[in-house]
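Board work, copied verbatim: Helix-turn-helix domain-containing protein
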Amino acid sequence: MLDHFDTLAKLSAALDDREGLMLGEVEEVNSTFRSRLRTLRLLRDFTVRSLGSRAGVSASLVSNIENGRSNPSVATISKICDALGVEVADLFSSRKIELTPQVPADREVLVTEGGVRKSVLLRESDRGVSLYQVSMPPGSETGTLSNPSGTLDLITMIEGRVIVEFGEARVKLESGDVLRFFSNTAHSISNETAEEAVFHWLVLDAKSRSKTAQV
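↓ predict structure ↓
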């Protein structure tokens, strides 16, 4: 079993002297590299296009590398690693990939005048996707909201109760309930109880639902 390349210098030397490796060893290194590249890309929620854009290379090159149709240069590998936020060794190691979870202290928090707190769990404007954890104190409300045509909202209650009003509809939600609605219609959410309400709020704009994800 080959040790992983832990520096660019070693990687460069290995790529320049592949004759020193047996065919099976070369394929083992290449297979590990391709597999971990794809895994890390998907863990970052990057398409081949978005990774290519971040790395300054074409989407077709990223796809060809992952599928074994192209052998990248050391410079290209370095750019891809920078875009993924990993070390070169991470693409060649046989060790499990260590992930760092998002912690509350790292989240952006939006607070309204009424005390409604929206913690940003995910916001990707280029893909039209936003996910919030919302905390509503007793007696609070969001006020009237509206989004562009085609925007789809999904509310998943975690605890407490809220009332969602949109158009002529009025829906009471409690822990475990899920509500899906198009939010281009004027809508509002209120907590009329004496307890805090917490829910996840997913917002998908029209382009996020019309595009087919490129994987």
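The first strand starts at residue 109 and ends at 111.
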